[in-house]
Design brief:
- The chain is of the alpha+beta class and about 220 residues long.
- The protein is built from two helices and eleven strands.
- The longest helix is centred in the first third of the chain and has 36 residues, at about 20-55.
- The chain starts with 17 loop residues before the first helix and ends in a 14-residue tail after the last strand.
């Protein structure tokens, strides 16, 4: 027995979906276009924000007249005074800051500085000449592989406390120009001459010695 042909797909009483589908496609296109434009705008904002994070001069080495500010802790960004540096350690970590532009030179890790206060009578002649009231400053970057020098501990080679790089155990005596007293570091830490201006520590000259490691690290 033959069946009557179905008219379900062509019945005029059922709604035609194609125009709505076209409308949905068009709406989707609009959404994607707006999303792409928004993403592009956000990327532009991100680039501007990143550029704003590294203003001119922020990667330059410390310069004479720069002030010193805390690089970490609750006082990060604040001026370091002589009273902020505890006698006998531990060292204070600092960044140089241009007092004229207020730019902190923190865009290069090679600019981080260790500041410590020791008995002036314990310092050798050259070290004492770079110090102010027994306060001396050195690069915080190990001369071996460029790791940060983070520890202030009793030396493995003596009974005095020294700077220590925990990467490969190099030790430096700040009393004698941060010369190497233990470990594989090939040379002393670069020294930074200091001055005292209106009670705050400032840079009195360029780094003395090479800053950074002898090999990538």
């Amino acid at each position: 027995m033959s069946r009557a042909p179905s008219t379900a797909c062509s019945s005029p009483s059922e709604p035609i979906a194609e125009p709505e589908a076209d409308g949905g496609i068009e709406q989707t296109r609009r959404t994607l276009l707006l999303g792409a434009l928004a993403t592009t705008a956000c990327l532009g904002c991100s680039r501007a924000a990143r550029a704003g994070e590294d203003p001119p001069g922020s990667d330059e080495r410390p310069q004479k007249g720069d002030v010193l500010v805390f690089s970490e802790g609750d006082k990060e960004g604040k001026l370091i005074t002589a009273a902020d540096v505890p006698a006998g350690g531990p060292p204070v970590h600092a960044w140089p800051k241009d007092p004229n532009t207020s730019v902190v030179r923190s865009a290069s890790r090679l600019n981080e500085i260790l500041i410590i206060k020791l008995d002036p009578t314990e310092l050798d002649e050259k070290t004492r000449a770079r110090a102010v009231d027994g306060i001396i400053a050195y690069s915080a970057i190990c001369s071996h592989a460029g790791c940060p020098v983070t520890a202030w501990v009793k030396s493995d080679a003596g009974d005095k406390e020294v700077f220590k790089c925990m990467c490969h155990n190099s030790e430096f005596d700040p009393r004698e120009g941060a010369q190497v007293v233990f470990g594989p570091a090939p040379r002393r830490l670069a020294a930074l001459p200091l001055a005292l201006v209106d009670g705050s520590l400032s840079v009195a000259g360029n780094f003395i010695g090479k800053v950074g490691g002898a090999q990538p690290g």
